[in-house]
Protein 1
Amino acid sequence: MPNEGSFEAALRRSDQIQRDLLVHPEDYTMLTGDRPTGRLHLGHYFGTIKERIRLQDLGVSTNVIIADYQVITDRDSTEHIADNVLDMVTDYLACGIDPARTMIFTHSAVPAANQLMLPFLSLVTEAEMSRNPTVKAEQAASGHALTGLLLTYPVHQACDILFCKGNIVPVGRDQLPHIEMASKVARRFNERYGKVFPDVAGLLSSTPLIPGLDGRKMSKSYGNAISIGMSEAETAKLIKRSRTDSERTITFDPEARPGVSALLTTAAICTGRTPEEIAAEIGAGGAGQLKRYVTEAVNGYFAPIRERRRKFEGEPDFVRDVLHEGNRRANEIAERTLDEVREAMGMVY
Ligand code: TRP
C-alpha cells in the first residue's frame, strides 16, 4: 500500500477528475484491464466494471486490456488462457461494455505497445522497481523467486496505459503504485525527449470493497467468490454453504462477524440499501433468512446480465470478432504512438 499521504493526494486528484469528467468527458482517455486468470466475479463487477461502463456511457474514450502477458508474472503456465480470454470478453459484453465505443484487446496481439517497454525501462531504476509494494506482496504470495517479468510488469503496465495515451485509470488501491510508475515514466520520457505522453491519474472507486463470502478479499482461489457467469442455482448453493456464526440475531459487525457482515454487504450493494438496514429487518430471522435474502438480491441484480451472457455464449464467432476488431484498432493506435516515440527519440532513418 502507498503511504497515507500519497493515498490522500491520489484521492483528492481522483475526486477532482470525477467532477471534471461530467463537464469535459472528451478530455479523458480511460485505460484499464484485467488478468485473464479465471471468471470475473462480483468484486470485479462492483469494483471496476460498473465504473468502466459509466465512463463509456459518459462519452469518455474507453479502452480495456485483457492482460494476457500478466498471467505469467507469478505462475508457470498459460493453461486455459484462450478460454479465459474469450470468457472475459463474454463477461464484458454481458455487463454492458459496448464494443462500438470501448476497445477490447490483449497484450499479445499488439507488438508496438509492447515495444514501448524498451525505452520505458531505461527511465526507471532497479531500486524503484524493487520497492513497489504490490510487486513485493505478489512475489511473497507466489512462493516463487522474483522473475524479471514480475519485477518489471508495472513498467509494462505503463506501456498499456500510455500507448493509447490513457490519462485516467480506474483502479483499486492496490494498483496505485503502478499508476505512480506510469505517471513517472510519462513525465521522464517527456522531459528527456519532448512531450509525447499525457499525465496519468488513478480514478478511485467510491463503492466500498465487496468482500468474499467469508469476509476475506474476494478471490477465486479462496472459493469465496460469486462469479458473474454463475447460474442462479450455483449462486444459491455457494451462499448457502458460506460460513456464518452461532449467534442467531443478525447484526452488521465486520470485525467480530465477518461471515454475516460479508453477506449483508453483498446484499446491500445489490439492492442499494445499507447493511445495517437489512440486518435490522432480518434481526431474529437468523442466517437462513439472511442467506435467502442475499441469494435473491444477487440473482435479481444479475438476472439481465446473465441472460445477455447466455445469449453471447451462443455466439462465439461474434465474441471472437469483437476481440479481433479491438486488436486491430489497438495496433493502429500503438503504431502511431510508436512512430511519435521514434521521432521524439530521433530514431527515424
Ligand atoms: N494489473 C491489473 C490487475 O491485476 C491488470 C492490468 C493490466 C491493468 N494492465 C493494466 C490495470 C493497465 C490498469 C491499467 O488487475
Note: The chain is about 55% helix and 5% strand.
Protein 2
Amino acid sequence: MANELYHFVGGKKVKGKSGRFGDVYNPTTGELASRAPFATADEVREVIANSAAAFPDWAATSPLARARVMFKFKELCEAHADELARLISNEHGKVLSDAKGSLQRGLEVVEFACGIPHLLKGEYSEGVSRGIDLYSMRQPLGVVAGITPFNFPAMVPMWMFAVGIACGNTFVLKPSEKDPSCPLRLAELMLEAGAPPGVLNCVIGDKVAVDTILTDPNVKAVSFVGSTPIAQYVYTTAAQHGKRVQAMGGAKNHMIVMPDADLDQATDALIGAAYGSAGERCMAVSVAVPVGQKTADALIERLVPRVRALKVGPSTAPDSEMGPLVTKEHLAKVKGYVDHGVKEGAKLVVDGRDLKLQGYENGYFMGGCLFDNVKDGMKIYEEEIFGPVLSTVRAETFEEAIRLPSDHAFGNGVAIFTRDGDAARDFASRVQVGMVGVNVPIPVPLAFHTFGGWKGSAFGDTNQHGPEGVRFYTKIKTVTSRWPTGIRAGADFNIPTMR
Ligand code: NAD
C-alpha cells in the first residue's frame, strides 16, 4: 500500500480531503512510492487564509530575528542533507551527488537571505528642504506564493521562499506533484528553525490548486518556474488578477565551440551539461554549435565514445553518472523526440533509446543520445526535449553561431568555449540570451546575483533571488517628513517645490 502524503499547513501535517491523488513513483524501480493529495479550491483557500493570519506578526518580527530563522534553517538542512538528497533522488531520479549539489545551490539563496537586515536598509535624504527629511523603506507584500517544477524540488522552492519569507511575507508553496516529499520536509524544517506556524505552508495539487492561487485576492505575488506554456498562462492570469508575477519557462541552451577552443575541455563540459540530471535541467546544454567543419568533426569524434560510456544506473548508486527520467510518460515523450529527429533527417550518431538496466527493467531509463547535422527549423531544434539528448548544429561562421541562440524562441542560458577574449567579449555583449557562460557550460549565477532568462524563457520584469528577488517580494514606501513642525510657510496652492 503506497504511503499517503499530506499538506503542511499552520505547522501541521494535514490530510487531503479531496479524494483526488497523484501517484508518485520511484523512477529507478518504476514502483508506486506514494500518493500525493490534490487539494480542492476550498482547501487551497484555507491554506491562503492560514498564511494571511500569520502575516501581521511575521511582518512585525525584526529582520534580524527573521535572519536568525534562516541561519537555523540552513544548519538544519545541512544536518539533514543526506535525508533530503535521498528524498529528491527517490522521486526525481537524479543521482545522489547531484541532488546534494542542488540542495547546496538552494542553501546559497538561504545564505543570501540571512543578510536581510542589510538588504532591507532603505535610503535617507536629510534636509531636502528646511526641516524636511525624505526616506524610503521596503515593506513586505503579504501572502506570496511559489509554484515550482519537478526538476529542482529543493533548490527552486528555496530561490523563492527564502527571499520571500526573509522579506517578511508569509509563503504558500505549491511544489510539483511529481516529487513533493522534499518540499514538504523543507516546510517542517522551517518550523523547527523557528518560523512560526503559517509562515511557510505547503499545499500539494494540480491545476485546481494553481488556479486558486492565481485568483485569490489574498495572494499578492506569484513566483512560477516551469514549462513555457504554463509560465505564460500563470503570468497572464495572475497579472489579470492584479498580482505581481515572475514566471520562468523552458529553455534550449546552446554551447558554441570555436575553432580555437580546448576541445577536451569543451567535450568534458558538454558531457556534464547535456547528460547530468538526464538533461532535466533548465540550464542543461541541449545544442552544441561547433564553428567550422573541422571543429565539428573533431568534437563529434570526441563526444561519441564519451556518450556511449555514460554510466547510467540507479539514482542512489554511488557510481551512477545519470539516473532515470522522472516518469514513464516523460521517458516516452523524450524517446518520441528522438524518433522524430531521425524522421526529420538529423543523424543519430549515438542511440540510447533501447537501453535496459538489468534488475531495473521497469525503471524509466534511457541512454544518452547524440545527434549530428541538426538544422534550425527541425522540431528537435525548436522545442525543449528535457532529456539526455544533445543536438549538434554545425555553424559555418562566428556570426551564424551568434545568430542561432539569438533567434531561438527561448533565451535562458548560452555558453561559448574559446581562447579568444575578443570573440568571447563580443559574443557576451551581442547574444540575445539572459545568462551567458564564457568557458563555463552552465552559467547559473550565484545567489547574490540574479537568475532569469530572456524571450520565451521568462515572463515578468524581475528575476529570481539576488537584489531583484528582494525587490520582487517588497513594495517601496517613501516618507517625506517635517520636524520640527513649528516652521510656518502659510498655505501654498502650487505643487510643493523644495527650497
Ligand atoms: P510544468 O510546467 O509541467 O509544471 C510546473 C508547475 O506548474 C507544477 O507545479 C505543476 O503542478 C503546475 N502545472 C502543470 N500544468 C499546469 C496547468 N495546466 N495549469 C496550472 N498549473 C500547472 O513543468 P515541469 O515539467 O514540472 O518542469 C519542467 C519545466 O520547467 C521545463 O520546461 C524546464 O525548462 C522548466 N524550468 C525552468 C527553469 C527556469 O528557471 N527557467 C528552472 C527549472 C525548470
Note: The mean pLDDT is 97.
